[in-house]
Amino acid sequence: MTRLTFSSPSARVQYHLLMGLFRLAVTRALYGRFARGLARLFPKGNAVFLHESGAPPFRIALSDGYWTRFALYRAPYEPEVGAVLRAAAGATPLFCDLGANKGYWTTRAAPLFERVLAVEASDATFSALQGNAGHLANATLHRAAIHARSGEVLSFVNTHLSHASARLMGDTPAGTGDRIETVPTLAVDDLVPEGTAALIKLDVEGAEIAAIDGAARALRDGAVLIYEDHGNDPACTVSAHLLQDPEMVVFAIEGGLIPMAEVSAIAARKTDPYKGYNFLAAHSTSPLLATLRARFANPSPPG
Q1: Is 102 a residue whose pLDDT tops 70?
Q2: Please, which residues have CB within 8 angstroms of residue 180's CB and are 6 or more apart in sequence?
Q3: Burial degree of 252 (CB within 10 A; 0-12, 13-18, 19+)
Q4: Per-residue pLDDT for 118 more than 70?
Q5: At a CB cut-off of 8 Å and minimum separation 6, what does 297 contact?
Q6: CA nearest neighbour of 227 among 277, 165, 288, 163
Q7: For the chain, what is the mean pLDDT?
Q8: What integer pLDDT is reported at residue 14 of this predicted model?
Q9: The predicted structure's pLDDT at residue 23
Q10: Other CB atoms within 10 A of residue 114 CB
Q11: Any idea which of 173-177, 209-213, 260-264 has the lowest mean pLDDT?
Q12: What would you measure as the largest C-alpha separation in the chain, in angstroms?
C-alpha cells in the first residue's frame, strides 16, 4: 500500500503540476529542467512524503528531478530490490545500504532487519539521509566513501544538476558548477561483523570494483551483494570482475533469481544505456543465497 502526504497545500499543487509536466518530457535532462524550473515558482522546501508498506516516510523534495521521476512518476522504484529485501527478512540480521543516497532503501529496510547500516559520501545528500533515517533506532549512518580500504581520504565530486550522479574523482574532471569535497573511506569488511552473512546493496558510482575488493571477507562469510551494472558499460566491468572468481555466482533479478554464467548474458539484459541494472552476487556456498533462491522459487502466499 502506497500513499503520499505533502509538506503544505502548495506542495500538493506543485506535485500535480509536476506530474502533468513530466508527461511531456522526452529526455532525462528535460525532466530535470521541468522539476527545477517549476520549483522556482513555489516555496523552497516543498516536498512529498512517500509512505509504503509500513516503512518510515521518505521525503522527496519537489525540486528533485531524480526522485520525483523514479519514485513518484515511474513508481514503483526498483521493485526487484524490494523483492530481495523482503525475501531476506528474517534470514539475516543486517542490511547495508552502501551509496545510500537520501535513504530510500535504508527506510524501506528498517522494518525488515535488526540492523541497518547506511553509508553516503556527499555532504548535502548525507544531510537528507539524516533527515529521512537519522531518527531510526536500528539504523547507523556514516558519511564516507566505500572503497577497498578504510582510513584513506578521497576527493568526491558533487555534480551540480544531479545528486544521483555524484562520484569519486577519477579521470573525468569536475564540471563547471560541480563541487569537490574530501571524504574518508570505509571498507565493507570493516562495517560487517565477522561471521555475519549480511545483505549488501552497493551503488557507489564507479567505485564498485574497489568496494568489492574491500568486501572479500564479508563475501566469504556468506554476504549477498545487490550491485549495479550500468547500461552504458557494454563490457559489464563489474559483473566481469565478479565472474573472474570461480567461487562467485551472479543472478539477474527478474521475478526470480536467474543464473548469469557469462558476461554476454548480462550484456543482453542491458538494453537502455541510461539505466542502471541491478544484479545479485554471492559465493556459491552462501547460506543466505540458498535461502533467497528457495524463497524466490517458493514465494509465500499473500496474507
Answers
A1: yes
A2: 155, 156, 157, 158, 169, 174
A3: buried
A4: yes
A5: 256
A6: 277
A7: 91
A8: 97
A9: 79
A10: 10
A11: 173-177
A12: 56
Q: List C-alpha distances in Å: 17 to 4, 12, 35, 149, 209.
A: 15, 9, 10, 46, 41
Residues written for the chain: 303
Cell of 54: 509500513
Residues 11 and 45: their CA atoms lie apart, in Å, by 9
Pull the grid cell for residue 221.
562469510
Decide: 281 and 250 in contact? Cβ < 8 Å. Answer: yes
Cα distances (angstroms) measured from residue 150 to each of 109, 147, 201, 271: 25, 7, 18, 35
Supply the DSSP symbol for 78.
Answer: -
Grid cell listed for 137: 533506532
Please state the separation of Cα 302 from the chain's center in Å.
Answer: 26
**Grid cell listed for 162:** 544531479
Neighbour-count burial of 231, counting CB atoms closer than 10 A to its CB (0-12 exposed, 13-18 middle, 19+ buried): middle
Burial class (CB within 10 angstroms; exposed 0-12, middle 13-18, buried 19+) of 202: buried
Q: Look at residue 179 in the predicted model and tell me its pLDDT.
A: 75
Residue-level pLDDT at 42: 97
Q: Which residue has the cell 555534480?
A: 159
Angle at 114 between CA 108 and CA 119, to 5 degrees: 60
What's the average model confidence in pLDDT over 96-100?
97
CA distance 10 to 33: 20
* The predicted structure's pLDDT at residue 53: 83
> Where on the phi/psi map is residue 233: left (φ > 0), alpha (ψ -120 to 50), or beta?
beta
- List, in sequence order, every residue forming a beta bridge with 251; answer none if it has no partner: 259, 280
Local confidence band at 303 (pLDDT 50, 70, 90 cut-offs):
very low
The pLDDT value given to residue 28: 72
Q: How do strand 2-6 and strand 47-52 relate by DSSP bridges?
A: antiparallel
The answer to whether the beta carbons of residues 175 and 136 sit under 8 Å apart is no
288-to-94, 129, 220 alpha-carbon distances in Å? 11, 28, 12
- The grid coordinates listed for 248 are 562467485
